Amino acid sequence: MADTEIVRKPKAKPRVERPKLYKVILLNDDFTPRDFVVTVLCSVFRMTEDEASLVMLAAHRQGACVVAVYTREVAEMKAEEATDAGRSWGYPLAFTIERED
Ligand code: TYC
């Protein structure tokens, strides 16, 4: 047997960070028509009308409601697109994003 010993380097464990997730939150206001909120939720967040109605009503009653959770770039884009849709009709409809714990 050879008297040399093969010493293996310990394999570096690949450290893959899990991407941080962000909630898109719908805020209530007194002016945006309910049907318009539902339409925006359906088109931007690909919800069914039933799902969108539930989210709209939750925001209407509680003041705010989580719509969906995405990585940061996607959450920012969706919140901006949905807020812009309201603004283009003169409504104060607002979506914000918040880091998930
Ligand atoms: N509160 C609005 C109204 O009574 C409807 C509404 C619901 C607006 C949810 C925004 O996030 C919202 N017309």
Automatic annotation (TrEMBL):
Keywords: Hydrolase, Protease
Biological processes, Gene Ontology terms: protein catabolic process; proteolysis
Residue span, Adaptor protein ClpS core domain: 18-96
Subunit structure: Binds to the N-terminal domain of the chaperone ClpA.
PANTHER family associated with the record: ATP-DEPENDENT CLP PROTEASE ADAPTER PROTEIN CLPS (PTHR33473:SF19), ATP-DEPENDENT CLP PROTEASE ADAPTER PROTEIN CLPS1, CHLOROPLASTIC (PTHR33473)
Family recorded in the similarity comment: Belongs to the ClpS family.
Pfam families: ClpS
InterPro entries xrefs: ClpS, ClpS_core, Ribosomal_bL12_C/ClpS-like
Protein name stated in the entry: ATP-dependent Clp protease adapter protein ClpS
Any one Gene Ontology molecular-function term assigned to this protein's record: peptidase activity
